[in-house]
Queue: 2 jobs
Job 1
Amino acid sequence: MGEKTKTPLIRLAKRDGLNPSAAWGIRLASILVALLLGSLVILITGNNPFEAYGIIVNGALGSEVFVRQTIKNAIPLLGCAIAIAPCFKMRFWNIGAEGQITAGALAATFIMRQMVGKVPSVVLLLAMGLAAAIGGGIWGLIPAFFKAKWNTNETLFTLMMNYIIIGVVSWLQIGPWTANQGRMAQFDEAACLPKVMNIHCGWIIVLVLVVFMFIYMKYSKHGYEISVIGDSENTARYAGMNVGYIMMRTMFLSGAICGIVGFIVASGANNTLSAEVANGVGFTSITVAWLSQLNPFVMIAISMMLAVLEKGTSSLNTWLAVPASVSDIIIGLLLFCMLGCEFFINYKLIFRSSHNGKEGEAK
Amino acid sequence: MSNLRINRKKNKRFGILICVAAILLGILLAAFIYRLVSGKPFASVFRGFLPWFLALAVSAVAYGTPLMFGTLGEILTEKSGNLNLGVEGIMFMGGAFGLGGAYYYNQLASNPNGYVAIAIAIISAFLAGAIASLIYSFITITLRANQNVTGLALSIFGTGVGQFTGEFMRVKAGSYITLSNDLKDFFIMCPFPKFIQNIPVIGRLIFGHGIFFYLGIIVAVILAFYLNKTRSGLYLRAVGESPATADAAGINISKYKYLATVIGGGISAIGGMVFITTIAGCTWNHEGLSGFGWLSVALVIFCLWRPTAAIWSAVLFGALVDLYNRLHLAFLPDEIYKILPYVVTVIVLIFSSLRNNKEKQPPASLGLAYFREDR
Amino acid sequence: MDSCYAIELRNITKRFGEVVANRDISIGLKRGQILSLLGENGSGKTTLMNMLAGIYLPDEGQILADGEPISIRSPKDSFRYGIGMIHQHYKLVDVFTAAQNIVLGLNEGGLNIKETNTRVQEICDRYGFDIDPAKKVYDMSVSEKQTVEIIKVLYRGAEILILDEPTAVLTPQETQKLFAILRNMRDDNKAIVIITHKLNEVLELSDEVAVLRKGTYIGTVKTAETTAQALTDMMVGHAVALNIDRPFNQNQTERLTLKNVTCYDHEQVKKLDNVTFTVNGGEILGVAGIAGSGQKELLESIAGLYPVAEGSIEYTPPEGDVKNLVGMSPTQIHKAGVALAFVPEDRLGMGLVGSMGMTGNMMLRSWKNGFGPFVDRKGPQELANFIWNDLEVVTPSTEFPVRRMSGGNVQKVLVGREIASHPSVLMSAYPVRGLDINTSYAIYNLMTEQKMNGVAVLFVGEDLDVLLELCDRILVLCGGKVSGIVDARTATKDQIGLLMTSVGGKEEA
């Protein structure tokens, strides 16, 4: 035993709540670190990072057309992040948004096929939206039922549910519902979401959902129940809450919102149904929700940021012949940095000082 | 007490018996379905069935091998209590870097040797997966971020890196890249001599597969031995079951979690490389590879975190992945085959939570962060 | 080597946030001696020993082994110095066997379970344990688990054993067996520390007693030279003449009657066995018993939180019909007009929402009120302000998370809310645990006030002195059974102590 030191070099201690502006400062810094790391990737491809970032920003926000496309990309991200927020608040790890989107789009398409041409467009769209909400909701409800009843692991269950419904859609796509060569027919004009300011009106729906979710979580009885369960299920039971029922109800709501997003994507953006309707949005939006601290308004900013990166890097592909997948890399780096930085918000490092018990703080 | 032990042994023997019976029954059933579909008289069914079955078995093993590596790696990871949902990304990176390693060796070496190429592919895939998992470990273990979210971020990042590397190599080379035909053969070669492979039925069924399948079995057996029979394996399981207990016993939680996750990620990554170098024929094929990582996560549940069970489960899943190519049933659309693995997994998940059996459960601390001074 | 101590703690201070758990404590452990570390709940005994076990690091002070200063950074370091701690909550891996748990964390090359089994058997024979090394922990009884824990530290050659409240979960017979084993170990020249707050055990077993009070070190005395009275004085600071005001409420009416209530936990273990008693409006009925005798299940089954297998719980309202509460959920009980207030043992894990402020916690009782989809914040806000002022809760605002308040203030918030709901039955489990004297008295007064208002008060306590001075009657639980109900004005401590450990004699007073 050589060393006779009293304490190790670095110790951790929980912070007693950092003030919000410092916390957001740390988060902003982490975004900068991520962009710095991203520029290394761009350097590998033999390009100037400044030029590349310029192209990204320009490609995402440089013209009205680009901005529209960027917003189109942000809509499903934001919508799903909102859907996931109450589940995560409840510490119910719903990673089945991907499947719930698909289920919603599937239900909407089913209704569309039944009703198209028989009813006016408004009625058709409303019916599709409702069907999507129910479809997505049921897809979310199933894992919640088993969680409530037998405590079945919800993370793994919701994950599996994604691929089941995607498989069903890809069967319909090349099987019963196929139009030509494994593709489904384009939606009838009446089944497409109308445009407002040249973007399909999904953005209005999603913004309404933002406000709704904010109020729901903060001021409603349901929101209160969700917060209590997230803190302690025992307390919830003590207060007379039916935890299993609330779990199922919340998952139905979450699935329903995801379903509506699926409907928006299928009807507004793609004008058709395909197995790729979710296209990873369900997973990315989970990170959006988490990084926004489940605050719906912050989600707008973060989903826009990811959408800008996604759209911008696609023009990077056209201008500098950088593979389009660089967007996933930069988004991944961004997520890593933002996930990691929460540590410095929640904990402080205490370095051993050589003299007395003085505590030095990092960051 | 000794009574109990004998009972357990008996149970085990009984279990094996049932398994064998089930397999035989399955083969019979498959033959029966084949008869229904082909409409041939029963006598000729077996003559037609056997080659069909052997072909299915071979392709099941081929598709099962990448899954097996993916699953084994994830089992090791999850045994430490880390739920790494980034397997999809890890396998992408393993595929791209494994191929890259072998490709550049092929290009640079004057007289490329097949064994060296395989070794280089394995090492580069392993390193890629290990580095990816190191990022995950750092963020979840040291920085204590949420495991689910970090895993998803890793799967976004990893698929991006894999894709990027695959495309980048193609752009650099000017055309799509692949290995020379000699080397390609090495990747799908069978390690057994011809005369053993030529034993009727058994030769093809058991000894006729590619080298990676047997490597996978070795990894599975080593992993099972490690987890169940060694001290370090016992400690790793303790970390995954109850980190507070392990910590109090003086086990270095972070070390075990880091090592298990990083090595597990490396093993999973080899799965991606195996897919690219065998099934995809040594060219970058991200569409084929996509979904294998998620299937591996499913498989871990399906085989209830037991490495040896991963061998036959992976082959079974491999059969399901490829079955739609080989068995066309009027009432069962091809695409539905693809969801069977997930449906089966969900059923296993539900039953294991229903049965309340203490042994066949996920590691108790799976997905949870551990911080000692938390009270 | 100027020290006769195997391990010595010098001027140890440990803080958790703003709370000082240990302040400048110095204690020494000798070989061949059993030292009792005595103190009330929350006096910092466990925290202090956890620093020897490598769970916590001291903020200030020194630890010496045989006179040499050492640093215990991890449990591993702790083992290296021959220290083994048996925690109150057993740290065992459920799906492992006894032997696998015993070898956990050791550095001895390969894994040879056979050899382990032989060595375990040796230890068993030497000190008188009885355990099957191949038995899985999830199949074990509590006392078997404790045995595994003790063998675990002996197996790694511990010379210094620390046992945290080892008898809390044991039957009297098991306790005697354990004491015999501990004496064998002392005779084997080991240094033994038992953390306890039970005086009779201290006097029976130990050679020396070190006393802590609210995180500070009071002193060490030889057991042979002290008395229970002297130790109590050291422990609480003044003689236990509590002088709790106990008026008598003349207007007692039957309020809650339990008849033959039996409960099982999810593993089908009987937790309450044929429990029958009545609590009247206008009295405080104390509930005594060693930890885990069914107190928690008793209160939770009345509150509708624990399934009742057999029997009835009849509620007689001040006016109106008798209702049977069995089978009702908390919401149904509330809807049936039964004003039930419950201060659970686990304040932050059950009674309160740690991440919310006072207002949010007030809402826990009222969130359902009103018809609309929104929660009413105004009422709870007013209530929070009222409690803030009335009970002198120390907090920067009513939005400050209660998790970050001190224990006493947390309890004031909880009790204040429960009393504010104008209950007709008030149940409280260990409501003064970990609180300072002033706050404890404030809580006693609140309980008495409720009693005088005609409320039926059920008070689960662990301090018999408090029970004897505060309550009107005391019900004693033992192993899920009612072993007796005594009049608190005439009963003695001995009498209750006897009932707490005897299952057989069912004397009613």
Note: Chain C has three domains: 7-236, 247-339+423-509, 349-421.
Job 2
Amino acid sequence: MGKATVIPFGPQHPVLPEPLHLDLVVQDETVIDCLPQIGFIHRGLEKLVEKRDYNQFIYVAERICGICAMGHSLGYAETVEELMGVEVPKRAEYLRVIWHELSRIHSHLLWLGLAADAFGFESLFMHCWRLRERVLDLFEKTTGGRVILSVVKVGGVVRDIDGAMLREIVAVLEGLEAEYATIVSTLLTDASIKNRTVGVGVISHEEALDLSMVGPFARASAVNYDCRMLGRGAYGDLSDFQPILDTQGDCYARIKVRCSEVLQSIAIIKELVAKIPTGDIAVDVKGSPADGSQASNVLEQPRGECYYYARGNGSKNLERMRMRTPTSQNLAGMVAALKGCDLADVNMIILTIDPCVSCTER
Amino acid sequence: MGSFRLGGMTFGSLFKKPETVLYPLETKPAPAGLKGHVVNEVELCILCGICQKGCPADAITVEKKERLWAIDPFRCVQCGACVRACPKDCLIMDAASTAITVEKYRTERTVPDPKAVTEAVVAEG
């Protein structure tokens, strides 16, 4: 047995789009311990709720993270609506979910492209981002923005999507589905990808539960939990929703779960477009959250469950706003997955967890 | 096997129209409602200050006495809150590109006083 050495990993590293530092304790090319360190991009956004009123804070909430922007504005709006007892029109709920599922498709395609790039599979990376661009174009046409959408407000949404545009969304997604199937079959059947991912970074079902893991990371270890199954908002009107699970708990299983979730999101959007009711898209929200009132909410972000908590103090500004994001839940699982792995597999394990450090630090 | 399928897809793209455009020689048409910089059509503005109150980035300043409406484009986050809040619909979002700058500036617009305009018309008449 050789002497243990500490190898620093990050905060600047080719596989990491965001700054995350890990101290890897390595012995004979095997990682025996891992100490994560965050705090490079903390912006104090939760504290800002004291300076901005509850309508203005929605624009701050969606800037927590560029990839999960739609999810954060939706989660925040739902929490404040619960705090103030506001009932959102049905059409607004449908539109919110359509945009949220589109953002899940764009997030997973972005991740898939980054993963392919890390494998050295440049052409697959180009194809993934080419498809993602079509989703961003849909955002541009329906909301006026590509990444930061600013389309949700407390009480509903600010823009409607007309029938022709809804049909265009379905047509674009149908075109995307066929090409996506080719990309996924390439990724999942390629021998070099299987060599690097099958049996790597295994997390058992029990470990996943013990470490309170969430999202595709947990579902790859057969944890049957997805916030969408709670049926909040338009999710309650879906004819059937089953979380996508896998039992292996390794990197390959995580890739499979995410790949299938894109197809699931496309199916959800198609169903909601077919069922979308007519009517108002927003209600007027007047007054302020009552002193001492509190509300909490969970939302399935592309990376897993995000928990929101808000407390009012009788003024336009909230007393407290707290978000527990999926990556902060998954960091413990990431450390567990890294222990005992080869140094060369660290990249793959971190990538398949898909850490979002901007969300974690806020 | 999968790589062959992707190879076929990549080969096929040789005979398709490119996905990208030759920017800046070619630009994509801007869709209706695309967000951009905020412009005030001052003839309609009543200097009510609702845009200033709604702005989450404190980018807008309204000085009623001086009849001045100003926006700091470097603070503006282009959320559109002011445009939606405006009771006179005098704020619009213009998606056209603006000139590149090396200095920070504030866009200031003097709002014409409707009373003064009426008096001037009467005096001229």
Note: DSSP finds four helices and five strands in chain B.
